[in-house]
């Protein structure tokens, strides 16, 4: 069973109080779809796979919002009992000081405290709650985009509400279905669309070298430290659309992977685009980790995307382990 939050408003109640906000804790769903032509940034989860699994584990629609938690997590006082799931990066989650399960739903009670500790693997975790969070929907999405003051901004001592719903708990993915966040990461990309703007040496350099994720990376884009990738006749193009995972190469020859909070259009040459199923691998890489790119064709990228959608669409509480 999935919950339709639109009929739950009368059951809204205080759920968590933020004793600490963490390094970067935001509310994210799958983003603002269909508005980029109007200049509205899509935002949404950096790791859409982990977000969707977390929602399925607690009985929500896959596109419901969750808390996206980066590296140093928040401290939350639980104000009402709820069923939650934490998926994505292992940031050492704990309930009352005792290690909490990951990729599995479990119950918390009023008076509990949720904390996070040392990052073990990955960068971003997703905390979903049965029934979802009662936060405003702005332009069709609950996602936070702080630069434009869209959505809910998390602050110290604020309370976030949830819904009083019944939900199954104690269900989760089996071990082989849980993603492994490897470093270095081998990331598959589709070439172009501006491949002809780079020299042969530039293209060869892009695929042969290991690129390093710069600390100057965020939800808007991952800057890479690379051997310079030369252009034929400059880096500028007419401004064009920027999908999630586009890899731009400005005049300095250093690639930038455009992420969830990317601008809607851009005027730098695009050497490749990360395929959708590998975006979580990029999103979960910490600063100073390594990336190597591997080209695949569009048909292969689409086949992988279809397989992932079949997996996510086939998940249900009856198919998960207890």
Describe the structure.
With 322 residues, this protein is an alpha+beta fold. The chain contains 4 helices and 19 strands. It has helices at 48-57, 200-208, 279-283, 298-314, and strands spanning 12-20, 24-28, 66-70, 75-78, 82-90, 94-95, 98-99, 105-108, 113-115, 121-129, 159-163, 185-191, 211-213, 221-225, 236-241, 246-249, 256-258, 265-274, 290-295. A hairpin with a 7-residue loop joins strand 13 (211-213) and strand 14 (221-225). The radius of gyration is 20 Å and the shape is elongated.
Main features:
322 residues, alpha+beta, Cyclophilin, 2 domains, seven-stranded mixed beta barrel, six-stranded antiparallel beta sheet, 19 strands, elongated
For the sheet with most strands, the description reads: 7 strands, mixed, barrel
- Computed structural class: alpha+beta
Order of secondary-structure elements = EEHEEEEEEEEEEHEEEEEEHEH
Number of structural units classed as domains: 2
Identify the overall geometry: elongated
Give average pLDDT, whole number. 93
Percent range for helical residues?
10-25%
Distance between the termini: 16 Å
Kindly state the number of beta strands. 19
Short description:
The protein has helices at 48-57, 200-208, 279-283, 298-314, and strands spanning 12-20, 24-28, 66-70, 75-78, 82-90, 94-95, 98-99, 105-108, 113-115, 121-129, 159-163, 185-191, 211-213, 221-225, 236-241, 246-249, 256-258, 265-274, 290-295. With 322 residues, the protein is α+β, with helices and mostly antiparallel strands.
């Amino acid at each position: 069973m999935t919950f339709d939050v639109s009929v739950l408003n009368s059951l809204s109640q205080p759920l968590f109080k933020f004793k600490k906000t963490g390094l970067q804790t935001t509310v994210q769903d799958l983003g603002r779809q269909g508005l980029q032509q109007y200049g509205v940034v899509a935002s949404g989860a950096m790791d859409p796979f982990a977000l969707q699994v977390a929602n399925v584990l607690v009985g929500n629609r896959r596109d419901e919002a969750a808390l996206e938690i980066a590296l140093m997590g928040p401290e939350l006082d639980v104000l009402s009992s709820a069923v939650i799931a934490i998926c994505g990066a292992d940031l050492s989650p704990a309930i009352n000081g005792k290690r909490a399960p990951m990729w599995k739903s479990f119950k918390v009670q009023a008076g509990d405290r949720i904390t996070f500790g040392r990052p073990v693997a990955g960068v971003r975790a997703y905390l979903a709650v049965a029934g979802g969070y009662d936060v405003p929907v702005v332009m069709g999405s609950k996602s936070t985009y702080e630069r434009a003051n869209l959505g809910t901004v998390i602050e110290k001592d604020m309370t976030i509400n949830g819904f009083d719903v019944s939900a199954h708990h104690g269900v989760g993915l089996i071990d082989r279905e849980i993603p492994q966040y490897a470093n270095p990461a081998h990331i598959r990309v589709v070439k172009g669309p501006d491949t002809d703007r780079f020299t042969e040496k530039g293209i060869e350099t892009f695929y042969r070298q290991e690129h390093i994720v710069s600390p100057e990376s965020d939800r808007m884009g991952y800057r890479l430290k690379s051997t310079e990738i030369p252009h034929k006749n400059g880096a500028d193009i007419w401004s064009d659309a920027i999908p999630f995972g586009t890899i731009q190469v400005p005049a300095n020859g250093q690639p930038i992977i455009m992420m969830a909070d990317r601008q809607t259009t851009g005027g730098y040459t695009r050497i490749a685009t990360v395929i959708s199923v590998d975006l979580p691998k990029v999103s979960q890489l910490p600063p100073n980790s390594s990336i190597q790119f591997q080209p695949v064709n569009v048909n292969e990228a689409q086949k992988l995307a279809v397989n992932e959608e079949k997996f996510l669409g086939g998940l249900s509480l009856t198919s998960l382990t207890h």
